[in-house]
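Lecture 7 notes: from sequence to structure.
We start with the chain below.
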Amino acid sequence: MEKERHVLVVFPHPDDEAFGVSGTIALHVKNGTPITYACLTLGEMGRNMGNPPFANRETLPEIRKKELQDVACILGIEDLRLMGFRDKTIEFEEENKLINLVLSMIKELNPSLIISFYPGYSVHPDHDACGAAVVHAVAKLPEKERPKLHCVAFSKNCVAELGEADIINDVSTVSNIKLAAIKAHRSQTEQMVKEMTEKLANNDPQVIAWINNERFWTYKWT
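Predicted structure tokens for the same chain:
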């Protein structure tokens, strides 16, 4: 993997980083690249409360905050930024507020790579709004000064409309770190981890491929 100057990761919820990019983050950390992860919310409107439940609507925000901090330690992220927005409201935030927030981080950090969601192809309204803010922030920079933008997409129509992923990172050498990151989001992933562990024990090819490979699309500027 190419060594980057600085990687800025922008997602709306705790655990967004774990499923799709934690292996990539771990590889960048191993390369000595500084990582900044800006998480917009605490995911306090998440439906899962653990299995069996150990959280409730009042305690979930602090639990998810602690889970995210634990994941930052697991992945080696030294600059974790909790941005303080409310879960399930990112799509309703004033657009320029989000854009300027991302733009200020770009100007502060001078990243060579930004990772976020591909707007319109990431299923959740918060995901799409977050990705759109990142895209618009990068677009405000002169073309020669823009960092690379690697986007996560997983809607059913993403391949049909965007084509196959432009980048596939082999993260098999850090798959144990990726699994630890997913497990650390215990309130949201406990049942999934149980099922995934059983499938891994049975050498399920789809689960193995998902764990070992992370896919990104470069943003298609129009």
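Points to note: Residues 7-218 form a domain with the Rossmann fold fold (CATH 3.40.50.10320). The helical segments are 16-30, 60-75, 95-109, 125-139, 158-162, 175-184, 186-201, 205-212.
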